[in-house]
Amino acid sequence: MQFPLRWPALSRRTPSSNGSSKKQPSSASLSEVRLNSEKADKKNARYQTVALNAAKQSQRADLPIVQKVSKLSDVLKTLDKNTLALIPHLTGRRETLPQVFKKLKNHKRILFFIGPEGDFAPEEIDQAIKAGCLPVSLGATVLKVDTAAISAVSFARLFLSSDR
Fold first, then answer.
1. pTM of the model
2. Is residue 11's pLDDT more than 70?
3. For residue 130, with 0-12 CB atoms within 10 Å meaning exposed, 13-18 middle and 19 or more buried, which class applies?
4. Distance between CA atoms of 51 and 9, rounded to whole angstroms?
């Protein structure tokens, strides 16, 4: 799960307890927070502690990985054919999550790019689509970052755990 730099506490905890295995905070052009490397390291340590506590509370056998803050463009370069990369955003042509999951092939992992408050910049959306991300909608309501993360992971778990 890809998150913007301003990653609320609820978002840090809930995907951990909801089964997300990896978190990747990123810096998008519209991110509200800009961190130097020292502050980024402190944030990362804090995120890892929160993920550990959430994993313990939800009795997970594995610990979610919280990676260091990266630029969105750098994370997009790591996509491969085994990853279903989804970028929920607010404008343009998008599919719904049920439409995408019904067509799901042999992907080994799902990656959600959750944008900053106010959405990704249009150039970032174009860059993500060119890198292989599928543009999706999380519904008619504009969601806050933490709600979008919870909704996306919850829907994926619900859909993928049921018979298609």
1. 0.72
2. no
3. exposed
4. 10
